[in-house]
Amino acid sequence: MKLKRTLSIIKPDAIQAKFQGKILDFLEDKGFNILAQKRIKLTKSQAEAFYEIHRDKPFFNELIEFMISGEISVQVLEAEDAISYYRTVMGNTDPNEADEGTIRKLYGTNIQCNAVHGSDSEENANNE
Ligand code: GDP
Q1: CA 72–ligand 1 middle distance (angstroms)
Q2: Contact 51, 64 (CB under 8 A)
Q3: Is the whole model's pTM more than 0.90, yes or no?
Q4: Is residue 54 annotated as a catalytic residue, yes or no?
Q5: Which residues of 88-126 are buried (b: 16+ CB within 10 A; e: fewer)?
Q6: Whose CA is nearest to atom 17 of ligand 1?
Q7: Which listed residue, of 43, 82, 109, 118, carries a Cα 20 to 30 Å from 89's Cα?
Q8: What tens-digit pLDDT sequence spans the chain (128 residues)?
C-alpha cells in the first residue's frame, strides 16, 4: 500500500515536560517514518490561523495562549494511512477519555494540554 503523510505537532506542554524524545521514540516504534522536523514558536497570528476553525469556540483564546506559550515541534510523518493511523495512535482529545497506550493517555494532562496535534483530513494535512 502507498505510504501517506500527516502533520504532527508536539505541543508546548509536552515540550516543557521534556516528553519530546519519548514521543518521537513512540512514533518510530509505531512504524512512522519521521520525514522532517522543525522546532518553532508560533506567533499569535499563526496560531489563530492554524486553529481558525475553532474561532467561535469558548476555549479559543485560551487555546491560542497555550499554543504560543512555548516552543512546539512539528513533524511530517509517513505511514500507511498516516492520517487515520496517527489519530488512533494519538488518542481522544481528552486524555482522560483516551485509550490506554495512546500518546495523549501517556503524555497528556487535560483536554487542552493534550501533548500532540495530528491532522484530521488529507486536505488539512496538506494545508497544515
Ligand atoms: P483534536 O483534533 O483532537 O486536537 O481536537 P479539536 O480539533 O476538537 O481541538 C483542537 C484542540 O483544541 C485540542 O487538541 C485541544 O488542545 C483544544 N481543545 C479542544 N476542546 C477543548 C476544550 O473543551 N477546552 C479547551 N480549553 N481546549 C480544548
Answers
A1: 16
A2: yes
A3: yes
A4: no
A5: ebbbbeebeebeeebbbbbbbeeebbbbbbbbeeeeebe
A6: 112
A7: 43
A8: 789 999 999 999 999 999 999 999 999 999 999 999 999 999 999 999 999 999 999 999 999 999 999 999 999 999 999 999 999 999 999 999 999 999 999 999 999 999 999 999 988 888 89
